[in-house]
Design a protein that fits this description.
It contains 16 helices and 31 strands. It is α+β, with helices and mostly antiparallel strands and 586 residues long. The protein folds into three domains: 81 residues, no CATH class; 90 residues, Immunoglobulin-like (Sandwich); 333 residues, Deoxyribonuclease I, Chain A (4-Layer Sandwich), CATH 3.60.10. The strands form eight sheets. Strands 19, 20, 21, 22, 23, 26 and 29 form a seven-stranded mixed β-sheet that branches. Strands 3-2-1-6-5-4 form a six-stranded mixed β-sheet, with helices on both faces. Strands 17-18-16-15-31-30 form a six-stranded mixed β-sheet, covered by helices on one side. Strand 2 and strand 3 form a beta hairpin. Helix 14 packs parallel to helix 15. The protein is globular and about 95 Å long. Keywords: Exonuclease, Hydrolase, Magnesium, Metal-binding, Mitochondrion, mRNA processing, Nuclease, Phosphoprotein, Transit peptide.
Length: 586
Amino acid sequence: MWRRLRSALRSLRGSPAAAPHGGGGRPPAAMERAVVRCVPSEPKLSLRFVLPDGSARHMQRDQAEPLGRALARIATNAAKGHGKAGKKSKKARAEGDAEGETAIPPVRLFSRDGAVVAEEVPNAAAWQDGAVLHIGDARYRVERNPPALTELSLPRSLLAGFPVCPKVSAEFAAPQHCLFRWFREQRPAGGVEAAGEAWVETAAAERVFTPSNALVGLRLKLRCTPGDGEQRYGPAREVESSGPVEAGPGACTFDARHLYTQKVCGPGSVRAVSYNILADTYAQTEFSRTVLYPYCAPYALEIDYRQNLLKKELAGYSADLICLQEVDKSVFVDSLAPALDAFGLEGLFRIKEKQHEGLATFYRKDKFSLLSQHDIAFSKALLSEPLHKELCEQLAKYPLVQEKVLQRSSVLQVSVLQSTIDPSRKLCVANTHLYWHPKGGNIRLIQIAVAMSHIKHVACDLYPSIPVIFCGDFNSTPSSGTYSFISSGGIAEDHEDWISNGEEERCSMSLSHPFKLLSACGEPAYTNYVGGFHGCLDYIFIDRNALEVEQVIPLPSHEEITTHQALPSVSHPSDHIALICDLKWK
């Protein structure tokens, strides 16, 4: 980062004073910049400035060190720089043209109100924003912790009609306070490159830019100026797209659904989404391309293409809560978290044990704040937490089943959220993805038993009587033991799912939980539709004592789902379908 600031320091020598777009905060043109980075958690502060001879200086000083020692060091550096610049030729020295030793310039620091800062003041307190450093006749305006970009990047794939969400990371700044300017490539006239400027600024000045069909074939450029919300701005950076805007797929399966979700719910309601988005780690295998999804065009299985669709789909739901399954860690960090942040959603991620994908929960920042997180891995919790001691002892009677349960990588993400509008309202939001195997009903029953015990601990013991919203891909149809257990509160020891993988793996026990849970979206014909299977596997379970359903957003029609035979397709990014419902407190 500081290498970038160094070039910025050089470029800003003698630069105009005004902040971008007329904001305040930059020093007058006659002053240089002295950039100070001082963070309480670090023992040293850094100081960067450019001497009159053009040489850049970078100093690291202890924050507790007296200012006088730092100023003495600056003076020594300045003298060295001056001495190098003023060296005479050997001939001149031979002729006796000696002017004596290079004088050490006076160096002082003045506070914003013009008073000299005492030399015994610690560095951390002395180097304040707006102070003025004097090195001989040169003047430097101190900029303490100025906004700076640490990362700026654009997605590799750009589609017309789909939002382009840059990844923006900054220090002493926030994306919502940055300034954004979008440019498009100049289109050659008659096949000849246009003279002059190669980029034309668009009318867009927002963080997210949606290119029109007119921009197909052209690359994009983004110029971002970091800001801190207090009219302070740092050096701008630019990034160009690696490729041109390409034509989009036309109508998508979620377009009609967006007609129901154009606006965010009112303050007394919560829009929840649950969606298995198909991890890239599974979509990009030879088995997936040739056996699972042979009907899907190969380019439509590429993660860059699918991310375009996913970001548009999720942003268009205007949701307050989004629970995702099969989220690649890199997709969360580099794509979904930055994109959904631009639409007002904060993301939490929990990776599976020994896997590259996991769960993500997003919540609308102006509606909720995060109180606490209580994520677990089922296998570890079963062995280590006293809460599950009785279940663990029962499971030990069935070593074959126990071994399979403990080998699974499944996790449970639990987040406790508090309403920013009414702090008395809290929610326990759970998210999971249970074991997938068709004959693994007994394994899923153990996993869901651990999940319900853990949720009970959070929603009854830690936060008494707060409502539960439990989302996920449960890999269980409405006729399964897992669905029956969740919705009824218990399961008998003779349920057929206890022998889902044959008599040798029989595992019989009676389970119960205290919640009254309802599938908010009912029991759709299917939420997963692939070439060889379709069925309802995904649910949003809600606490029926505290919450009720306002509306369920209709699923895409069967015709839309099967336009390209099955899912995923060029118009749908996953093999699952998102569940969306509007809830309200009773």
